[in-house]
Amino acid sequence: QVQLVDSGGGLVQPGGSLRLSCAASGRISSIFVMGWFRQAPGKQREWVADILRGAVTNYSDSVKGRFTISRDNAKNTVYLQMNSLRPEATAVYYCHTNRQFWGQGTQVTVSS
Fold it and tell me: In 3D, which of 35, 32, 30 has the Cα closest to residue 2?
């Protein structure tokens, strides 16, 4: 079992930045990939970004160049730095490990 606590969401104006955090505990050694999905109201959950154990990163086309995922292995924490935020980024963001365990979600709202 892996437990995840994600945080860092909030209200930000278009063009602004936020950094999400996801702290993992439990069977850390079983984690191969960590990352983020998001779900906007009335829409399906959408993949955002992943970081593999070897620090290889992958991004959806909708966030590439504006979002950066990183990992602090000493703290068992993954981060999502979100820059140049657009209103369509408004969603609940969920971190995951191996697409098996999920955080509780953190709300991001981009609005003026």
Answer: 30
